[in-house]
Protein 1
Amino acid sequence: MTFSSFRETSGPRTLYDKVFDAHVVHKDDDGSYLLYIDRHIIHEVTSPQAFEGLENADRKVRRRDCTLATVDHNIPTESRKDFESIDTFIKQADSRLQVKTLEKNVKTHNVPYFGMTDPRQGIVHTIGPEQGFTLPGTTVVCGDSHTSTHGAFGSLAFGIGTSEVEHVLATQTIIQARSKNMRINVPGKLNPGVTSKDLILHIIGQIGTAGGTGCVIEFAGEAIESLSMEARMSMCNMSIEAGARAGMIKPDETTFKYTKGRPLAPKGAEWVKAIKYWKTLHSDEGAHFDYDITIKAEDVMPTITWGTSPQDALPISGSVPDPAKENDPIRKAGMERALKYMGLEPNTPLKSIKIDKVFIGSCTNARIEDLRNASAVVKGHKLADNVIQAMVVPGSGLVKAQAEREGLDKIFEEAGFEWREAGCSMCLGMNPDILQPHERCASTSNRNFEGRQGALARTHLMSPAMAAAAGIYGHFVDIRDHKYRDNDIPAVAVTSESESESESLEGKAYEHDEPIQPSEATEEVANDELKDIPAATTAVKKSQAPTASGMKPFVKLDGLAAPLDKANVDTDAIIPKQFLKTIKRTGLKNGLFYELRFVKDEQGKDKETDFVLNVNPWRKAEVLVVTGDNFGCGSSREHAPWALKDFGIKSIIAPSFGDIFYNNSFKNGLLPIRIEQSVILEKLIPIAQKGGNLVIDLPNQNISDSEGTVLVEHFDIEPFRKHCLVNGLDDIGLTLQKETFITEYETRRRDIYSFLEGGSSLLRFDNIPKKKFNATTFSIVHEKW
Ligand SMILES: CC(C)[C@H](C(=O)O)[C@@H](O)C(=O)O
Ligand code: SF4
């Protein structure tokens, strides 16, 4: 049997090329591809507008068996012991609305769903692998940038925006351009005390947050091969912080061992067939990589961040850098701003910096191995007196249950840590878990952007062991100096899954021979708790509804240009988390660049700063001219282009863009244009600074001033994107015209990749407590499965 029906080249291929090729449904003459999506995970923040669009266009979820939903970002992490209903449990009205909207949507469309009363609920990127929903060689998408996590299985996994969520729901495909291939080789062995989190922070420190832009990174080499699946997931998780579209690691025995026996992993003959295929998934000898980078394992030390970008990473033995020693003026200004925000003095030894809080959680580091590593540090110690709060938030209900079986909860609690329920929590603080202004946190999460964990809060990223140690000592420490009690040193650069976990996951609890439809559990909750969803969501009038379809054509724009002299503007800065709780695409104007545009006055009211968009004439700007690289990096939130559009911005010019933001912009008729930095500085910025207009001619792909002088003779744009913008075309409508190709692909898929059939529809929902549960019921139910 041949496993692939499409091949771009006859020569050697990379892992990425192989997985990409295997999913090509159709290649258009303009070079864009339609890719089939095997696994689609959904959460409450980025799906409401997608379901709304789907319903307004009278479309259905094409493959509910390829779809899995859960709630994670908004939910409180306090004990659910007394959980009665979402109405009483979620106190924040906007969070509650998002959760209930998801529940309504999964019910309407019969999508398998792990709600708050389901012990399998957890962070999207924890539950996919845990259930065996994520499998080697699959395409995995989610309206979430850290979907890259799933690449640890050799799957092609990437974050998408809400319009694309709608596209996948309707068509089970996505329109993609081919990315470049980057390989990061890590030869040698990691030093004792060094985890995959240190390694990925080190890599980002080296290549920068724009280093992987336009690429899919394959992590390879001895140090990578020796990592456990959990450690690999932490690596791939943060490949988005390196600017990459996705991160991948070739599947091997470690992968197969982790996957075997998971509820949705293939069984019997299908397992044998799957393994045969998965073993072909590696980069061929001689395959071409556009970039090949080597990072020696022995050079990596326990690493933490000092600033407000994940690339601000240094070995723990280092000191806060000194801007006075930086020659590049843009970088120098960035460093000064970061140090001011972080409340740090140049040249301070990192180990002497005191902390206020600890957060052990997030999709990067809240799996069982992470909690084992952190608890081994904590065991027999107490939190330092200056530490106000330390939280441990497991990645899923199952991680929590496993940790409790191993007694880790007790170890943490005895040391003074809080033991919480699963969710995203303080990673971005869409729920009540936030830092207060100026609090400094040792965090195992992945983003240290300004305001990420709370307004004016200070985040330092590090491994679970290092965060736990910071809690014990009250300041950052080199984990290699820590004295473990009882010689209880965990295998931090673990080589394979611990037996106990694999066994529990292979146990009876997860058998699923008889497919059972998701029925009552989903239904009952949804029926009871839809009361406060406004009518507009349940019945939007077609004519009023903003959907992905029918965009206004973008042809020529003659618009006032505003200058923005910044690099690495992340989407958290473009639209902070508190504005993500909407279930609409509009009304985000005031949230745009909120932290930059407003400060609080004495009465606690918003007062405008002198940020460029608050100043005349730029209040009316339609073009944003950015001098620095990597505009729109970070989160996949489509709220970023929505907010820019709401403000009136129609085009953004920058040297480079975050991949997901770039993509999301097109879906909303917002034109991002990549122009070399020297040209921006020389020709465009002077006009923007004067408050002049720029004329962007999309059909002719050039930019002039209002007198007609051509400033940029040619800018690049992929033909398909141009075609859609100029004609205001609806992607989904276009894709649905390719129905024959999609059904043909599905027929082939059923045969060639038969081990993917069934998907989430094989999950059991019969044994889940429906209304109420407590930790004890949980583990009993879990044992019984
Ligand atoms: C809310 C979601 C869109 C976002 C993401 O894409 O990453 C979030 O998970 C984050 O970490 O900022
Ligand atoms: S990065 Fe944080 S907020 Fe985003 S999915 Fe992961 S845990 Fe959730």
Note: The CA atoms of residues 35 and 640 lie 25 Å apart.
Protein 2
Amino acid sequence: MPRVPVIGITACTSMIELHATQTISEKYARAAAKAACGLPIVIPSLGELMDSADILDVVDGLIFTGSPSNIEPFHYNGAASAEGTLHDPLRDATTLPLMRAAIAAGVPVLGICRGFQEMNVALGGTLHQKVHETGVFMDHREGKDEPLDKQYGPRHTLHVKPGGMLDRMGLPAIFDVNSIHGQGIDVLAPGLRVEALAPDGLVEAISVENGKGFALAVQWHPEFQVMDNPHYLTIFQAFGKACRQRSVLRQRLLLSA
Ligand SMILES: N[C@@H](CCC(=O)NCCCC(=O)O)C(=O)O
């Protein structure tokens, strides 16, 4: 009997009162369970306390989540962040090596928003720290005072490149996506392919060229109300299929050992 694929979901660190806490937004777990048909488990950000290889031993896929925090710029030789920028060094110390290890091992990866930026930085790319101050791109940030449905509602069109993963999934050449980020890709990491662009030319989706497994990352949030959006659902279903294939392979390897 094929078992349900285990999908690791990366966590953010924060303080709740006096307690150091690991958090994921529930929508990622729900999308992993409902749209990708997997068993979501939280991957805490404990930095060097956990080895990436040990994590890869127990998961069939990984979702690198979004977060209000920004990757510390020293990871991409960027200038120091503006004062007051929210960072999460433990998350960086966990997700950047984990991203590299997962891609190298062919473990299915879906990066979302911060997770998209993590894929680029982990593989040697750089970020714009404030996309809206470049003078080139539109403001990709949400209206923080608006209701959640509005914040995560359609904001701009997405232009899918022919011949890539998104195209092969059967997604249309143009569709609407949400937008909840202040940072964005500046220099694309070697080995990544641009999958889609915003109308202003900002990179919105990337994949690993000649990757050993499913390795896709998107700057928008397909996990939000995923069951109500056929395009978002297509992405989670494709990721879920890749996780199931790895699960079957892992089960076979375990049985033959
Ligand atoms: N901080 C980065 C990444 C933005 C991001 O991931 N936003 C998600 C917010 C919370 C969520 O929905 O998970 C940036 O500003 O670019």
Note: The first strand starts at residue 6 and ends at 10.
